[in-house]
Input
Amino acid sequence: MASLNHPPSSGKAGPSLSSRSSRRGATKHAAGASASSKSKSGLPAGEVLRSKVRKTLSKPAVIQASREYLRSQEEERHGVSPEIHEQLNIARMWMEKCEFSEARRIHVGLLEIASYKEDPVTAMEALAGLIRLAGEASDSQQAERWEHELERWMERHPRFTPPRVWYCRGALARSQNQPMKAQRFFLRYLREVRRSGGGVAGPAESREELVRAWLLLATALLQRGRRGRAAALGRVVLSELEKKPIRSLNGNVLILLGYVEEVEGRLDSAMDFYRRAHSILLAEHNWFYHLSVLYAYARIARCRGQHSQAEFYLDLVAGACTSPELATLRSSVEKERAKLDLEQIDLLVHPRRGEAVFRGRKIEFQRQFVLMDLLEALCEAHAREGADEDRGLSKKDLVEKVWSVKYRPEVHDNKLYYNINRLRRLIEVDCKDPQILLSWREGYRLALSLRIRVVRESEKSIAAGVARAATLS
Output
């Protein structure tokens, strides 16, 4: 009788100890080689990245994962019903149309139904949507409230957390400028989508969720400053989408690649990507991401020096950003408008700080208060309404404004000439050929073509612009 500890042999010689150890060593070597092909961020690089993305998007893999997930959901009698799944899709479409109140109403209604029926998957899907809406609105209190409730559901039902929860939490972290946290959530989203097969809608939705997961990882990498890796991943995703487009994702990946080109200074290439995204999003009636394209047009126009065109696009976006849920985009538009205002000014004067900025060049007056008073008086004359020939100051006017005494030519002319020459040496590039401070009639004026602004104490945004310009100079 054969021993229980030693089953009978099948007649074939088993592998020797040396062959087992050699295979074990080969396995370790292969694992080490695989690990070495990964970057510090945990993402595969080069061709390994391309093959991995394509493998996860291959039809057999998606179908198999979807079937396994559906079977597990059916066995556990949990999951999102087709009716609720349709409601979630309707809410997402309302967001694309910028009808955020409708999207919020659907999510809140689904949350109430799920709470009544103790349906954890529906509750977490609804909370994920509410978290994303709060993130877009930059409403930290609401986001914290919904996240706290989501965590309670996840603690009570850890096995039923839908993948979309990680997507929306990552989007919130991204809007809060936490790229590392966002990347961790997006990686978890990708892992859960690959495990679950995407949901109840079958392989088509599984592929959509997988593509979205890879695209979100690319956005997180871009926010971290990993432009090369983000662009490489974005191009892989784009090549997959060109085979079979997916609504909203084609436009999103083109926006991402356009932004990479814009940051790298390749504005023509960036515009090509943005125009392609523009046409796709218009055809889809996706106004939410279409606003991002218009905002990109404004940035490109400013970089090209087309300030009036940049103002046009910023006005379009600002006029559409009236909803609270567009607070993040509205804040970005305000920052871009501040940059545009700064670039549209040739001479920015800050009397309180004793400094000025002329076309990016910082000018420090230090304790030369007379020179600053002279410049401020000339700026006030330059800002007068009326004919160009009246936008200057006579010697008499300058003396009385700056020194507050009655003008006497024999006493004050030499003093005025001396200080005007000092001011020219400070602000002009070539004092022998002045281009800023010019002689005028019986006095002086600033060049009529200059765009000048004097910063008062209430103009905090312009003061901040002076500090930025000085830092960059």
Summary: The mean pLDDT is 81.
